[in-house]
Hints:
Keywords: Bacterial flagellum, Cell membrane, Membrane, Transmembrane, Transmembrane helix. By secondary structure, the protein is an alpha+beta fold. Among the domains are: 1-39 and 421-547, no CATH class; 40-100, 2-Layer Sandwich (Alpha-Beta Plaits); 104-110 and 117-216, GMP Synthetase, Chain A, domain 3 (2-Layer Sandwich), CATH 3.30.300.30. The chain has twelve helices and 16 strands. It has helices spanning 2-9, 13-37, 51-63, 84-93, 117-137, 180-193, 222-252, 382-396, 429-472, 494-511, 516-528, 530-546; strands spanning 42-46, 69-71, 76-80, 142-150, 165-172, 202-206, 211-213, 257-266, 270-300, 322-348, 352-362, 365-369, 375-378, 403-407, 422-424, 427-428. The strands form six sheets. Strands 4-5-6-7 form a four-stranded mixed beta sheet. Strands 1-3-2 form a three-stranded antiparallel beta sheet, with helices on one face. A three-stranded mixed beta sheet has the order 8-11-14. Helix 7 packs antiparallel against helix 8. It starts with a helix and ends with a helix.
Amino acid sequence: MNALIQQIKALGPVRLAIAGAVVVALIAFLIYVVARMGGAETALLYGDLSQQDAAKITQRLDQMNMPYQIRADGAQIYVPIEQVAKTRITLAGEGIPSGGSIGYEIFDQAQGLATSSFVQNINQLRALEGELGRTIRGIENVRDARVHLVLPTRELFSRERQEPSASVLLRMASSQRLEKPQVVAIQNIIAASVPNLKPERIAIADERGQLLARGGVNAGSSGAILEQSEELRVAYEQRMSRQIENLVERSIGFGKARVEASAEVDYSRVNETEEVFNPEQQVLRSSQNVADTTEQSETDGNPSVTIANNLPTGSATAGGATTSQSRSNRSEETLNYEISKRITNRTRDPGAIALKSVAVLVDHKTSGFDDNQKAILEPRTAQEIAALRSLVASAAGLSEGQVEVVNMPFASLDADVPPPATIIGNMTFDDLRKYLEIGMLGLVGILVVLMVIRPLLARLFDAVPTMASAGAGAQLLGPNGLPQLGGGRDMVPALEIGDSIEEMIDLNRIEGRVKASSLRKIGEIIEKHPEDVVAILRGWLYQESGA
């Protein structure tokens, strides 16, 4: 142990400082590696956090003395996997995370007696906005939502009352946008939560400034009708495209067809009146019957006796027969018939949707595989294209001239993913970082071996033979290093000689004049020729005393 201490002292302050720095760096590096590779397994506590929620959570975890890791620029926090459930329950009891907004927990705070009604109304409005924002964030693909409510108060002695309104700003979790049913759902959720608020008074926009719902538009206005017609057109195009695409994929394979349907909205208002006569259907409308019959008959065969016939101046008429007959018969009938007639009035409101054209893009067909197991693609024949065109035209109710079928090879899915950036050749940044970590680890290991382990081992191996040599020559040297001729009582222990040699080794190493190898050789000479060495030493002593 003393020899090791002497060897360490012999290094000097500069070498000791360098060796200490290397040892400290090595220990720190090993601690880092062990902590990173052999640490406790962690799990996600919360993800997609706002900066406010992340700050609150980390502050609370520090108070709980719980280790945690922050990833994804503060949006994700990881804790030991066995502490996830307990930590979530603890934070939920304290209302964390709150989503960056405050809700009805604002009323849990102590309110002073001097709090005015204005402050209470503002707190109520803030709480309602915060709760609505939390509700909207529960919808899929919505990361954050901010709600602004305008609830006008009715002034005294005022007959007019303003309607409430609202605006919503959405922050999406991905590039996917909300569909129209989801936007309508948000409008109805807010309208049902705020008194006297109508869905058409709610405006919704996303973080890119795209207007998803227009506020302040009456449901019966022309603008609302046009907007509704446009939405119906888009929905109709998507439905027809999906139906035709599913039909084509059953023939050529899944994912090998893309269909786009184009529809048109007719915004003209049309009034039609149609009057149709049917001559084959007759109906008796009126009838008139007239019957006129006259019959007259006169006969005078035996004249009658009168006074004139007996007067002397009278003349007697000749007797004879007189006959007169008259007969008249008239019959008239009038029938009026009406032809069947149908009158139809049609009124067509604007907004009718009609499919105009369909475009179909189909992929090449696979004919086999090459030596590299890559698919061999071939274009489809004209007969196949014609059959697909006829099929699509029949399904869409269009003529073949309104259907276009194009055969082109589809791009590979791997082509959509950009390759990682390279630095030298095919080396990426991740590869460079990995190589740098390996190189740093190897460099630290080499420095430790060269500057710490190798010198220590060399000094330890040098000290052991030196002590052995000193023990062998202890019988020839007396006190104070003076040689002696004999043994017995006057013999000095080998330990004292060894100590003196160690002091000489330390002195020579410090001064840089004598090496340990030379001392070992001297020790060997003393062991082989002890008498000659004693004679030489006595001669040196006599010369020094005579001088």
